[in-house]
């Protein structure tokens, strides 16, 4: 029986670990947690997102055409749209889904990311 999702993994080039930390911890405000000692030599970082984690692993290569992604449930989607746009992140519009407002973007390392907010059907603006 599958009980739930423990974590999601994304990847960045080895040369971009500090930049990833700045993007995910600085811009998105996620909190870094210590990786187990046996995994620290692999590089990357682990981040807390509510009661789950995003693991930022080290991997070389391009992934700009994948549908694989992380979807962050947020409040105040307009805030996130403005914050990311102000940081120079290109906002991509997703296909509308009833009862949700959302948008997507590629992080600086080619990982697809979605921001999604539950909304009343009559209030959809994003």
Low-confidence stretches: none
Q: What's the CATH H-level superfamily name of the largest domain? A: 2,3-Dihydroxybiphenyl 1,2-Dioxygenase, domain 1
What's the mean pLDDT score? Answer: 89
CATH architecture of the largest domain: Roll
Helix content: 10-25%
Distance between the termini: 36 Å
Main structural class: alpha/beta
Give the overall form: globular
Give the CATH topology of the largest domain: 2,3-Dihydroxybiphenyl 1,2-Dioxygenase, domain 1
Radius of gyration from the CA trace? 15 Å
- Bin the strand percentage: 25-35%
**Which CATH class of the largest domain applies here?**
Alpha Beta
Structure, explained:
By secondary structure, the chain is an alpha/beta fold. The chain folds into 2 domains: 1-60, 2,3-Dihydroxybiphenyl 1,2-Dioxygenase, domain 1, CATH 3.10.180.10; 62-126, 2,3-Dihydroxybiphenyl 1,2-Dioxygenase, domain 1. It contains 3 helices and 7 strands, in the order E-H-E-H-E-E-E-H-E-E. The protein has a 4-stranded mixed beta sheet, with helices on one face. A 3-stranded mixed beta sheet has the order 5-7-6, covered by helices on one side. Strand 3 and strand 4 form a beta hairpin. The N and C termini lie far apart (36 Å). The mean pLDDT is 89.
């Amino acid at each position: 029986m599958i009980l739930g999702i423990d974590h999601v993994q994304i990847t960045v080039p080895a040369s971009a670990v500090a930049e990833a930390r700045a993007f995910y911890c600085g811009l998105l405000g996620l909190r870094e947690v210590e990786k187990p000692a046996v995994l620290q030599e692999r590089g990357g970082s682990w981040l807390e997102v509510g009661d789950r984690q995003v693991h930022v692993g080290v991997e070389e290569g391009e992934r700009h055409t994948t549908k694989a992604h992380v979807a962050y449930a947020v409040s105040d989607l307009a805030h996130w749209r403005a914050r990311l746009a102000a940081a120079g992140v290109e906002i991509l519009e997703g296909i509308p889904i009833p009862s949700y407002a959302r948008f997507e973007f590629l992080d600086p390392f080619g990982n697809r990311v979605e921001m999604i907010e539950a909304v009343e059907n009559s209030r959809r603006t994003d």
